[in-house]
């Protein structure tokens, strides 16, 4: 039997400004976000709004209701990741692929996600529309994972983003429910 109850809870996680809110907004049919203006001067240079609690979205994929929870990216809000991960069936870890520094910055955060339990997950290398973006294969090497779980992403592009979500849904429904969690 499948390890879900007729719906899937999927976490969308990743570093500050990696594109989590954009992804949830792009793929979802209904959406709730908790964005507020950025107050920290360093982070303001990157963008105007940041997620303070979570993004929530619902979409149906191949007949399966999928509830998406996007995590807040600021380091001081990272305690929310464990809270939001409760009961999840899997996660998408977004990496900002627009420059190499962001890829290295994502590594400890990815290791933190893995420490939450052995969940089905994929890594999506976002901002592939940016010239000179880091290719997924290189991200796989840096994060020491199989290239099979690393996908290119443009979170603003509905077809691409839905394609990435479908990959995770397929992975979850074909994975045996031997999920070990720390909860
Ligand atoms: N070029 C490009 N920019 C993107 C893409 N997706 C998101 N962005 C931009 O990246 C910035 C961050 O996007 P958000 O969706 O706010 O990122 P986030 O991960 O939710 O950010 P926090 O919640 O603050 O951690 C914004 O300026 C987006 O417009 C993409 O596919 N391509
Ligand atoms: Mg956000």
UniProtKB/TrEMBL annotation:
It comes from the Archaea. Keywords: GTP-binding, Nucleotide-binding. Gene3D superfamilies: P-loop containing nucleotide triphosphate hydrolases. CDD domains: Ras_like_GTPase. The lineage of its organism: Archaea, Thermoproteota, Thermoprotei, Thermofilales, Thermofilaceae. InterPro entries: Gliding_Motility_GTPase (IPR052705), P-loop_NTPase (IPR027417), Small_GTPase_ARF/SAR (IPR006689). It comes from Thermofilum adornatum. This is GTP-binding protein. One of its GO terms (molecular function) is GTPase activity.
